[in-house]
Amino acid sequence: MQQFSLCFSKVKKDCLKFIKSQETKVDKFKNKERMIKSFLIPLCFWINKKADKKRPYFVGLAGGQGTGKTTISSLIRIILTKYFKLNVFRISIDDFYKTRKERINLSKRVHPILLTRGVPGTHDINMMLNFFRKSKSKKFKRLKLPTFNKAIDDRYNKKNGMI
Questions:
Q1: pLDDT values of the chain reduced to their tens digit, one per residue, 163 residues
Q2: Which string of b and e fits 64-97 if b means at least 16 CB within 10 Å?
């Protein structure tokens, strides 16, 4: 458990800074340090042990909207990069939403609910499949994906929002 303490001392500042950036005046995270020490750090040790350093290793998080998947994955990324020195990229299923224009078209042709992101049929499945296909290839180095911006309910401009 000494390893966990050493890890915590190295990542604490960055993790708490990130958590603070996610809090509002009304919504504060509870038991932050305990969550990092008791859950996230042991999970990251497990991931590090499982990961093959030569090929991408995928870890998926599931949960309903607003349950903290983005926050948890961001904290995991901080720990894995800062302490374990792993190359980590984080993707979100949100980044695979069809464009607003495509969803408007679908809502007119198929059903009005398809304008609302998140319902079945609003993700670009081909883009998602291509992402996994390319990222698993031996020649994988870099891949451009759009980033979805919930504030405008569409993908970021290609010049500004690619990762």
A1: 789 999 999 999 999 999 999 888 888 888 999 999 999 999 999 999 998 777 788 899 998 878 888 899 999 999 999 999 998 888 888 899 999 999 999 999 999 999 998 899 999 999 999 988 888 877 777 778 888 888 899 998 765 544 4
A2: eeeeebeebbbbbbbbbebbbebebeebeebbbb
Entry pTM: 0.80
In DSSP terms, 29 is beta-bridged to none
Neighbours of 159 (CB within 10 A): 6
Q: Where are the domains of the chain?
A: 2-82, 93-161
| Sequence-ordered list of residues with C-beta below 8 angstroms from that of 65, at least 6 positions apart, any chain | 118
d(CA 103, CA 91): 21
Angle between helices 2-22 and 41-50 (to 10 degrees): 110
